[in-house]
Amino acid sequence: MPENLYDVAIIGRGPAGLQAAIHAAGKKAKVIVFGKLRNSSLYKAHIANFCCYEKPILGKKMLEAGRKQAEEFDAVFLEEDIIETKNENNLFSFVTESGEIFTSKALILSMGVSRKKLRVKGEKELTGRGVSYCVDCDANFYKGMDVAVVGNESAAATGAMTLLSYAKNVCLVCQKLVITDKLYDRLKESRVKVMEDTWVKEVIGTNEVEGVLLTNNETLKVNGIFIELGAKGAMELAASLGALFDPEAVSFIVTNKKQETNIPGLYAAGDITGPPWQIAKAVGEGCVAGIEAAEYAKRLADS
Q1: CB 12 within 8 A of CB 109
Q2: Mean model confidence pLDDT for the chain
Q3: For the whole prediction, is pTM greater than 0.70?
């Protein structure tokens, strides 16, 4: 059997992922949770109007308590981003930003869908006309062109290297890279031009992107800019596995009442499955996903 094999893997450690971990591990499944605490949208939030809490509670405190509960059932937490996922031979495999490989029988996606924006001049106007938030979705449109990627973390670094297979030239604009040493070495060995200590000040173009103005007053002539802030998003990872999205906005993963997707063994919970954007919904779906994923892994082991 593969090394680092778990019954249930969970990507995302917000309320949905934590509740899934508690219930899956509580059913004696071997569980691992990937993700960084600070990447949760609750990390800096104050939570109110949540059942059984009379007074507002800090989001960070709630997340830390959830992890402790899951760890009491022997769930394992790894503070790393996932940069690649595959589904082969009834097993899901994951590559972390440090290059380590893990496998699992079932997978729960619970990392939300919010797109972090630069909020600079020209970004909104040129979205879809050269401004993109998904390398895996749109890289194919930039064959032989010059592109820029902006971001400081693993999504930007891996996205820039992915674009090398499509674009003519790739420039990574970052203030300071916050990635593992192994990923940094891979980036430096690639053809990606890394520009540190600067940021995007404005996206230039009339009907489509023509360039970007940086805070160091340098202008890059590019055909596209990929905004990749933080970890690789849920939609990119889900798309690589063949998950079905809602037909209208193509923004959410379609699940049934068991939180199952169209891919056997793949579950989704929380904001990634659509509105309402409420902790109560995320926790409920995480509960269902955790139980169902653990049962699926058990059935797979017994077959």
Answers
A1: yes
A2: 91
A3: yes
